[in-house]
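haha ok so turns out i had the wrong file open the whole time. this is the CORRECT one, sorry everyone. sequence first:
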Amino acid sequence: MSENKNYFKVPNEYQDALCQIRIPGQAGQVLAVIIRFTYGWKKKEADVSFKTFRKRTGMDNRHIARARNRLIQMNIITVAKKGNKKKAYYRIQTDYTKWKPLPKKARGKPSSKKATKAVAKKDDKSSPKKATPSIKDIHIKDIISKDSEIDIPTQELEKRLEELKDDLKEERYEGEKNYIREGIKEIKKLLKGRPDNE
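then structure:
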């Protein structure tokens, strides 16, 4: 009788450690992908692209990045870049005693405060310090509907533009292509007004 190969082994110590800690939903999804490409391929570390995370989890880059950061904060994974800077190598922290739960403030649903800061008006005098939002906190709908109010560094806009162009090539976004194209158009408009792009 042939052996069934449709499974992979994980160490008992890992499974025991997993039982002892609460991992938020999306962070758990990202961790599952990392496990699939490390333990699943009998490797200590694996390079996993955002495209792979999107395909496996159905999450967008912003949520993937936030989930990954939570896993790093919890010391469950480490991320390193080697040679080609675009590749990120993921490794499970195998000293499970170093795993730590998230602080209570970081649990539950992510706060919408960042998104609010990202679209703060330039002339809002109630805000003592202007927020410099990361593109990860900006959704396409914010770019489309409030482009005049968003103050994002040029480098971040260019990065988001490339991500949207990649999304256009993916079949899973077939129903959202017009929406993505509109986002690309609006980002190009924002970039056109920058001194470096005139």
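The domain at 12-106 is CATH 1.10.10.10 (Arc Repressor Mutant, subunit A).
again sry for the mixup
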